[in-house]
């Protein structure tokens, strides 16, 4: 075994220093948002808060979490994520499984047809007209049905299935299993890592989506959390465009909330739930991305 040299130590030190710098560069903005969100509004407008809150206060969170519009939008977003994520994973995997069969008739033309949709689209107005013709405008299902198919995710799952031993499917067919039985009893358990990865991506997409709610719904009861938060951010953005004299006056009044604290608290409310979910899916995420990366 080769002994560790001085050059190896220097190289390791440089690598670790670089990784620590990347960690700090990516983590600090999130930490600063958290610090500003739990700091007193009258103190925040003075500036100079970087690592720790000077005056701890959860007033901004109380203002946001007691707002009926926000609470209702959280329910809509949670329902959208819980319904849309499993349906999307099932639909995509149901398409990926037959397309992974090299003996499927018209396999290549069908695959090219779906790939074509990745690069070309009719634009927003034709898309809106299609949704209107399907009576999906101002409907909860406008969040679910149009996004059931994602071609990129389908290709990932198909590639993963193609890497599985073909003998498993062949032996199941010899024993009399049909395609549905093979799909639910063999393919789904074996593709759990990549399906968990796709589920994580899909859940993040549903949770962070706001444009479809902003454009395709008019009923306030159908607004998602992100759409409501966009409105809040725009509303309080104007509050941050005041003069220094006005800021000093506001500080003297000991304001309970300010544009900065509300915006930061709103950002944390939208970010924390999906961040807390990630650790539970991380092992599947890593395994799903690495096992499907190389074909034997």
TrEMBL record:
Pfam families on file: BPD_transp_1
Key words, A-Z: Cell membrane, Membrane, Transmembrane, Transmembrane helix, Transport
Principal location class: membrane
Entry keyword Acetylation: no
Subcellular location: Cell membrane
Domain ABC transmembrane type-1: 74-281
InterPro entries recorded: MetI-like, MetI-like_sf
Bilayer topology annotation: Multi-pass membrane protein
Transmembrane parts of this sequence: 9-31, 78-98, 110-128, 140-161, 182-204, 262-281
Protein family: Belongs to the binding-protein-dependent transport system permease family.
Protein's recorded name: Carbohydrate ABC transporter permease
Originating species: Paenibacillus xanthanilyticus
């Amino acid at each position: 075994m080769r002994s560790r040299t001085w050059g190896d130590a220097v190289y390791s030190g440089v690598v670790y220093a670089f990784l620590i710098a990347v960690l700090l560069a990516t983590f600090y903005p999130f930490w600063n948002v958290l610090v500003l969100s739990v700091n007193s509004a009258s103190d925040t407008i003075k500036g100079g808060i970087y690592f720790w809150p000077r005056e701890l206060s959860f007033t901004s969170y109380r203002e946001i979490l007691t707002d009926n519009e926000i609470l209702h939008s959280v329910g809509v977003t949670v329902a959208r994520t819980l319904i849309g994520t499993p349906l999307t994973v099932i639909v995509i995997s149901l398409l990926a499984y037959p397309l992974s069969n090299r003996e499927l008739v018209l396999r290549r033309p069908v695959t090219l047809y779906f790939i074509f949709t990745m690069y070309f689209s009719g634009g927003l107005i034709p898309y809106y007209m299609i949704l209107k013709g399907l009576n999906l405008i101002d409907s909860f299902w406008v969040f679910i049905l149009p996004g059931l198919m994602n071609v990129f995710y389908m290709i990932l799952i198909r590639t993963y299935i193609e890497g599985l031993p073909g003998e498993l499917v062949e032996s199941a067919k010899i024993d009399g299993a049909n395609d549905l039985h093979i799909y639910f009893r063999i393919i789904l358990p074996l593709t759990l890592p990549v399906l968990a990865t796709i589920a994580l991506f899909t859940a993040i997409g549903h949770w962070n989506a706001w444009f479809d709610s902003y454009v395709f719904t008019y009923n306030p009861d159908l607004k998602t959390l992100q759409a409501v938060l966009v409105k809040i951010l725009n509303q309080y953005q104007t509050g941050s465009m005041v003069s220094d004299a006005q800021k000093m006056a506001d500080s003297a009044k000991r304001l309970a909330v300010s544009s900065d604290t509300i915006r930061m608290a709103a950002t944390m409310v939208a970010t924390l739930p999906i961040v807390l979910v990630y650790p539970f899916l991380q092992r599947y995420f890593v395994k799903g991305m690495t096992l499907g990366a190389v074909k034997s």
